[in-house]
Write a structure and sequence with these properties.
Layout: E1 2-6, H1 11-22, E2 26-31, E3 40-43, H2 49-56, E4 76-79, H3 91-111, E5 116-122, E6 139-140, H4 153-172, E7 175-181, E8 184-185, H5 189-199, E9 212-213, H6 214-226, E10 232-237, H7 248-255, E11 260-261, H8 275-281, H9 290-293
Parallel strand pairs: 1-2, 1-4, 2-3, 4-5, 5-7, 6-11, 7-10, 8-9
Helix pairs in contact: 1-6, 2-3, 3-4
Length: 294
């Protein structure tokens, strides 16, 4: 497939693009800064609607001119570009940039007749991550039916983006899939970060004791590219296991007292349920911190 990818210069985007290219997809990265990856790139401001639709409808590299058949079209858009969290700039700018870019990207895609859009939502939509103080989920494990009523501008922008995406899908019939991505971990971060998580599991409370390996995130994007006809869907994206060394029962006892436990959980099972992604698009994460740290 030919894929227009936004935000490919960021942490998650680079891994996703590498994986998609390894699967044989042609990827064009649209970002404000170069990625350093071996793919075509357009440096644009995604808050400018004209630049977005222009980038999606123009040549991107010299080799595309050789066929003499006009500008090639895209099979899908993957939108990862965003202010990645609160407390980088102001809250208002975080919300403005994230909602404006998402609107512009989806609007351009549907107007150009691109049949599929995959966009990055977030674990923060469930409100736990950036809450003031400790906020417990309504129930565990958290699935996609859990309420999304966040308190911070970043998570608000992601919830707004989901509503925007659903509205565009309802009007156009385009397949639009949102990925509620958990904390992205690169392979070299296991040895760097996880020993502290083993020593103090509370460090993972705001991430719902979950994570997603950057390589498995790329796999999830590819799964969504290959899945057709789902309309509008959102998916939790996480690895299968906890990001701490204690068991799920111990996590419940120490951190989720009084929280409804909706089903029996395996000792190492994630509290960020990924069953829907497995069932609907064939997501099959295969990496774990345990492979590195034992």
């Amino acid at each position: 497939m030919r894929v227009f990818f936004t935000g490919g210069s960021g942490k998650a985007g680079k891994w996703a693009i590498r994986h998609l290219m390894a699967q044989g997809h042609t990827v064009v990265n649209a970002d404000k800064v170069p990625s350093g990856l071996d793919c075509s790139e357009l440096l644009i401001d995604l808050t400018d609607a004209g630049q977005v639709i222009g980038a999606m409808s123009q040549f991107t590299d010299f080799h595309e001119l050789d066929a003499g058949t006009g500008v090639p079209t895209y099979d899908a858009v993957v939108h990862f570009a965003a202010v990645p969290r609160v407390m980088i700039g102001t809250d208002g700018e975080c919300f403005r940039i994230n909602t404006q870019t998402t609107y512009n990207v989806i609007e351009a895609a549907v107007k150009l007749g691109i049949p599929k859009v995959i966009f990055a939502s977030s674990e923060t939509t469930y409100a736990v991550c950036f809450a003031d103080g400790e906020l417990k989920p309504d129930y565990v494990p958290i699935d996609e039916k859990h309420p999304t009523v966040p308190h911070d501008s970043y998570a608000m922008s992601k919830v707004c983006n989901e509503v925007t995406a659903r509205s565009f899908q309802a009007r156009t019939g385009t397949d639009i899939y949102g990925l509620r991505i958990n904390n992205v971990i690169e392979p070299d971060e296991y040895a760097e970060l996880f020993p502290a998580f083993m020593a103090d599991p509370s460090l993972r409370r705001r991430n719902i004791f979950a994570y997603i390996d950057a390589r498995d995130l790329g796999h999830m994007v590819d799964c969504c590219l290959k899945a057709d006809g789902l309309g509008y869907e959102v998916f939790n994206v996480s690895n299968n296991d906890l990001s701490v060394g204690i068991t799920s029962a111990e996590v419940i006892d120490r951190f989720y007292q009084g929280v409804e436990v909706r089903r029996e959980m395996r000792p190492d099972e994630t509290f960020y349920a990924n069953d829907k992604a497995k069932d609907l698009v064939g997501f099959a994460p295969k990496h774990s911190w345990r492979d590195v740290l034992g």
